[in-house]
Every structure is written in structure tokens, then in C-alpha cells.
Amino acid sequence: MTSINYWGVVAATSVFKLLLINSYRSTDFEVHRNWLAITHSLPLEKWYHEETSEWTLDYPPFFAYFEWILSFGAAAFDKNMLDVSNLNYNSSMTILFQKLSVIVCDLVLAAGVLNVVKALVGKTKSADIHETKLRLLVLIFLNGGLFIIDHIHFQYNGFLYGILLLSISKILEEKIIEGALLFSMLLNLKHIYLYIAPAFGCYLFRKYCIIIDRRIPQINIKNLLSLGFTVVAVFAASFGPFYRHIPQIISRLFPFKRGLCHAYWAPNIWALYNTVDLGANFVLKKGRSSITSGLVGESLMAVLPQVQPFHTFVLTLIFMLPSMIKILWQPSRSNFVNGIILTAWTSFIFGYHVHEKAILNVVIPFALVSFAEPKLFFITLISGTFSIFPLLFTPFEVIFKLLFCSLHFVLSYSILPAIKFRWFEKLYLLGFVPLFLIENVGPYILPKYPFLPLIVVSDYCFISIFVCYVIFYWNCLTKDEIHWTITSKSAKEVKRKKKY
Amino acid sequence: MRIHIPNMHDIRLITIVPSENFVNIKCREIFFLGDLLELVEAKFEFGIGLYFVVVLITSVVVLEFCPLICEMFEVICIVCGLIGLILRWQVATFPYSGEGLPPKFGDYEAQRHWMEVTLNLPLREWYLHTSRNDLNYWGLDYPPLTAYHSYLIGRIFAAFLPESVALKTSRGFESSMHKFMMRGSVMISDLLLPALLVFHFVIKPKKRTTTWWPVLLGVTAPPFILIDYGHFQYNCVSLGLTAWAIMALLTEKITLGAILFTLAVNHKQMSLYHAATFFCYMFSTVIIKRADFFTGFRVGTTILSTLGLMWLPFGDRCVNVINRIFPIKRGVFEDKVGTFWYVLDRFLPVKGVVPDATLARTCAIVSVSMLIPSAIQFVVSVSSKKTSTESLQRAFLVNLFTNSIIFFLFSYHVHEKSILLAVLPAVLLLEWYPLEMVWFVTVASFSLFPLLYQEGSHLALLLVTTIFLLAAQQAGVFKQIKSKIHGLVFLCSIGGYLALIGGLLYVPPPPKLPHIYQAGIAAYSFVHYTAFLIYFHVK
Question: Where do the coiled-coil regions begin and end (chain B) (predicted)?
Fold first, then answer.
């Protein structure tokens, strides 16, 4: 146990990732290749206007810069991948470069885990720190869902979550400006993190800019200005060079024409809403609905009223408010972390056009408090990861997703404090076994209804994700200070944990 | 789903239609035992019988090993098992031997072809050169259990992908779904992985500290993964049977061990490399040490009846089978292998000069005489009543290890893959000799480099070996390197391989010697194997 070396595990994991080089790649691979080509071969002004490929640049400018930097490495591997018109180009060197870039960027995540542990545990015995590091490494760095999305499906999430963790660790260490700097950079890398921005905003504002002087809150102008300046400076650095194209960028970043749900429904409230609509339509035969076309685009409800983006915003905001107020009321470290989880979770459940991958926004910060709520964490982990499964459907990858995620579940279960499940919880978890069969064999048995297994998966996962959300929300609001450090562990379980 | 076996048709007609010839035909048919079975086959489906046998064997093994299999539900075993499965499946995504290389393809096509042959032809034709079975095109050259195994898997293929096992028309069949099913078929017949998982819980040195690392190193040992899931073979079946046989023997289940080992030999004749050790062990424990002739008789009859069960269906055609299994014509070594004869051939050409039969005899004599010293020592130590169980177990595994190296180095018609036979005891000995065995397994993996380079899966080899070495490092194996000289020797040995591999990948060879690096790796491995052989003999 003590012989296990943190970076040794990271290195071994990286080799495992590289071994996936021959496996399936989704269209996201081509998306990122195209972005490499755009940023490398076109002048800055054209980045957000270029549309030779259907996969236009729709991430904020920092990510574009990031791709631009990567493209110099790409040029050393294979220059042809940097040609904008070279659509769907996938030479072996291109694949090697792109996969390697994800693996190398993932080291940021490993560093993030390390820093978060330092911030969380503080000054304790070094053996404790070492154990905690390994535990969080397992829970976050080896996350099965993250693994299959980044290294099979192809995205750079690990790197982004690394920056998120770094920013959380800085804020927990009271290095507020550094933390704010990192988080604003993160927002400019991928705007999905706007979901959790309210928690950061409330905490930073309350903690750094407000002083309670004899029960009267006062604003610390100096701190407010320095915080504001940091954030504005980062945004200026990001959007500044594009000042003439900002409306174009905004239209790329927030495409409201894409429909309430993604092609595959993320397990949120709208998946249930769609299901009800489908069911009602099936019974009433009112008209053709287009929600099951499996395409990204605006869709029409057959029976129930249409949901507009505005409605989802209002709902999301209403349900976020309690957690934000809690942060403003009691700006403690645990409320901050809980706030991040809750805002991410709320926007996952009520948001407009949510991707199934966004559940990682919940699961990854949740790992930080997993020792306080092991059961909730474990169930969310399983159903959240399972809801990502439909992303991979080719035969080889079906086995991969099963193996990687089971490994992560087993490891997580063995390092979390002992969980006692009640009978219905056990029953629910066992239900995932037939669900896996339905999901992967169903399309062969019922080729007429390819969408049916996916609906079943969404709705089944939604049950636990929603229930866990409610319970966790309640616990966060009612308990004053959740005992949330990761170090409380019985010695016996520590012994059972091994490499990986 | 019932597969129609074409040849059965006419026989069935004969048996059903009563005619004057009927009796004659029937008499003649019965005269040949094989043909009798064919008649039975026509009535009851041969497959059902086979399934029955498989289920029987499995259930006996499962019952016998019940407590051991329960060990598998330990967290360590589940985690290591999943890691092993992941690695295997990752290597499975790499190209197989002969992928997209008509007309001859590779071992993958051979295995597919065997399914086609066993599924479509009557049993008596499996090992015969006939108009329907061209033995020059990947004819069956493994013992009957491999053929039965191919038949069973072929039935699964016939149910899901019938065109991949159609007679003649399916030659060179390749598709991504087929690759998936073929890789899957290796995984479902992998008996080795569970054996490696439980072995270190069953047989262990007395003063043990942690148990995770030998299990992890066992499941990540690269040669097994690369040959079975990369190159494509079913060594995991025969090696797995051997591993279970070892476990049975060392836990005093001698009869079961004998059956399992006989099955292993009947799956791949290469398992005979291990036979000497098994024989010496059983003979000296049962006959010499305990003078228990009844058990001796029982073991003997079980072995014979297992053999009989395997070979009976072939009746008088066993000779054909044996000729196919031990091919004298195919030369003393295949391609570039790190054996004694290959290295000798570099300096003093023997292959093609000395007649094959003479060479084969020489090989046999040399290998057997090399076995004798260690065999005598082994028999003495086993027979002595003072030897503790633990040192007995170690002696058994060490003897298995040295014997397989001797056979690899000196026997006839050796493939580079035969080193797997030595890697198995090496992996099982990890807990006793961590450093030596990690070293040996690494050397064995690198020696396979030229083979995998041919297929374009050399990246998999390098990566899996890296994982293995990282796991060894995590286990603290390299902390055992006490002196700087040892460390230097180790580094030089690995560095030498890396230099040769780097040369193969990046430095074009001189035009006169196009295979200089492959030959270099073979010769370098030969030096290593010899060194390991001497080291373990001295020890």
C-alpha cells in the first residue's frame, strides 16, 4: 500500500489510455482535428466564421488558443491534418498525436487531484495524505465515465476538470485571486462551466469582498476591485482579439436552435417530460412528434406544451437559489464545495439542451465529499456513468465501457466507507444488469424502435439521479456542517485498497 | 440451431432404408470404430455429446476447486481480473496475424479454417488430406482437443455468422464483426486468467506480506496477452489447464491433476515440455514416497481413459493425427527463434543439411540428457520425507521452469511462441523469485518483438511490457536489486533489447543482412535463456 507511488499509478493509467489507440473514435475526433486545422491555417478573424466542415468552432476563445498551441505539435506529427478541407482525415500519426495530446493534458487532472488533497487535508501525517491522494486519484482520475469519454469517444474533459480542481484547491487555500483567475480561464475554455459559476461567484463575493463588522456586512472595495479586475482581465484576454466578432462567437457558443434535449436524452427532467409526451401521444394518437428522431435540432411536442429556453432558465435559477443563499449565509469550505455540486446538478436536471456528459460536472466534485455521503455518491456514480454508456455502441467498445466502468465501480466501492444498502436500493442497482442487456442487445431485437432502449436508460437513470439530488440538497441545507473530510477511514478498508 | 453435416446424409439413408446390402454395410462400418461413432453421430448429434463432456469436466473441476473459486470474489481478484480483462481486450483491438494478407493469412485464418473444417466435415476427415480438406492450407496440426474446441466455437459462429464457417467459400473471411467474435472466443475460453488469479492464494510461501502484486503481475504478464489476443492463438486453454493441473497436484488432488494435464497435452502437444516434471512428481510422490500402488494404478488408468476418450473417435486414424501433430518435415526451428539450433545454424548450417529425421533424433537425445541432472535432483527431493510442502512446491515449479527452457532451447521444431511454456512456471514462481522472474518475463516479451512487428502490433507489446514493469516497480520488485553491479547488469540486459528494437524500428538494416535485428533479438534471447537455465541449475 505505501509502496504504491502516485505518479506510478498515473503513468500506468496513461499507458492504458494509449493502448486504446486502435479503438473507435466518435465524430468529436474529427471536430477537434478540424479545430486544429482552423486555428493553424486561418487568420484569427476567420476562426469563428469558417464553416467548411459541419463541425464549426463552438468553444470559447481560450480553447481555440489551446488548439492553436497544440497545432504546432500536430505539425511535427503530420502536416496534412492541419488542412481545413482535409475532412475526416485520420492517418495513424494524426490519431497518435490527438490521443497523445489528451493523455498528456490529463496530467493536469492528476496535478489537480494532488493540489486538492493538499488543500483539503492540510497539515496531517504524511501517511494520511498519501492515502487520501490515492483515494481521490481512484475516484476522480480513474473515473470510468471520464475515461471512456476522453479516451474512446474523444474529448479533453480530463484537462478541464484538472483546471477546475486546481481552481477549487486555490480557493480552499484562501488564495482567492489565483482561484478566480483559474476559474475564469476555465470558463473561457469551455462554457459548460457556466453551470457552476453561481457557486463560485457567491462564494468569492461573500468570502473575499464582504467583511462582517459588528454584525453589519460591509463591502471590501479593494478586494472587490482586485477580484473584478482579475475576471475582467481574463475575459478581455480571451475575447479581446475577437472584439469585432463577439456576436458571431456568442451565436456559436449558445445555439438555441438545438432543441430541449440532445440527440440522446440526458437523464434529466426533460427526458421524463418527453417520455410522458411520447406515451400520451401513443395513447391519444394526436400527431407525429419529432423528439425521437435521434437528431440534434428543435423538436416539437405532440401533446404537452412546448418548453422554451426561457422556462428552463427560470426553473434552473429557482432551484439553484437555496444553495446560493446557503453559501452567502455561511461561506464555509464545505458549503462552497456542496454549492458547486448542487449548481451543477440543478442545471443538469433542469437545463436546456443538456449533454449526458454534463453529469461528470456533478460526479467529479462530488468525489471530494464522497466520504461524507458514500451511498449517495456511489449510486449517483453508477447511474451517472451508466447514462453515458449509449455514447459507445460498437461491439469492441461495449466491452470496454463495461470493463472500465465495472473496474471503477469496484475500486470505488472498496475504498469508500462501508455502505449498507436497503433492499430497494439493492434492487435498483441490480436493475442495471438487465438494463445493460436492454441497451446493447435491444436494438438487434427491436430494430423498429432503436430509440426505445435509450429512453428506458434515460428514465431509469433519472430516477436515482433525481432522488439523490433531492436527498443531497436536503442534507446540504439542513446539516450545518457536513463532516466531509476524506481521511476518516477504518484501517481495515485501507488495507484492502491496492494499486490502481 | 442444428448444423447440417453434409456427409452424414447418405449414411443416414443407408441405415434407414432396409436393403440386402444393409447388413454388409453395417458390418463393415462397425469394423472401423471411427465409422461406428460416425453412425452414432448421425443419429444423436455429435455436438450434444461434446457439450456433455465439456459440462461434465467443468462441473467436476468447479466442484473440486470450489473453495479456490470462492477466492476469486476477493476484491483483489476482481480488480486484478478486470485489469487483466481490460488489457487483453485492449490488445485485441490491435491487428492479428495475417490481417488482410491473402492468400495465406496467418494463425487467425488457421483457427477460423479449423472451425470450418471441423464443423463441415466428418470427424474421420479432419486430419486427412481429401478433396474437401486440403491439408496444405492450414491443415489441423494440433491434437484432438483443439479440434473439438474449434468445433464447439465453430457452432457459435455458425449460429451468428454462418458465412464465416462455410466450407471452402469462407477462406480468408474477415470482417470487423468476425474479429470481434474471434477475439471474444479467445476470451470465453481463457482458462488461464482465473488460474492466475487464484494461484497465489492457493499456493504461497509461508511468510507472506501482501498478496496483490503477484496476482497483478501474473495477469499483466505480456507474453500470454500478446500471443493469444494479439497474434491470435488459444494457448490460454492448454496453459490454463496446465495451471489448474499444477494447483491440483500441489494440493494433493493427484488424479484430477493428471486428468487436467492430459487434457492440456491433448490441446497442444507443446505441453509435453512439462510432462517430465509432472511424471517425476507423480511417480515419486505416489510410488516412491508413499508406495501407494493403488493410487498409482488409479492415476494411470485415469490418464489412459482420458486419452482414450479423446482419441477413440479417430479409431484407426490416430496415426494420421500423430503424423500431423509431430511434423518432422517442418524443420528444426521456425523463422528466427532464440534456440540453440538456431544459433548453431548461424555458425554451422544444420537446417537443410542434416536430414530432418536425424536432426529430430539428435534434438530428442540432447534435450532428454539435459533433463536428467535436474530430474534426478527433483525426484530425490520429492521422495524424501523431510522436504516441507513449501519447498516441494517450489522445487516442482522450478523444475517445470528449467525443463521448459531446456525443451525450448534444444527440442525440434520450436516456435518463438513456445517460450510461453516457460513463462507459465515463471509467473507462478513470482512470489519466490520476484526479481528473477520479472526479468525473465520481460526478456520473453521482448523476444516476441519480431513476431508482433510483422503484424504491426509491436506498439501493444511495448505498452503492455511497460505496464508490467510499472506494476513490478509499484510492487517494489526492483528494490531487491541490492548491489550496483546487479542493477547495471539488469539495465544492460533491458537496454540491449531496447537498442535492438530501436534499431529495428528506426535504423534501416544493411542491405546484405536484411534481418540482422530479428536475428540479433533471437540470439540475444538465447543468451538470456541460457543464463537463466544455468542460474536456476546452480541454485
Answer: none
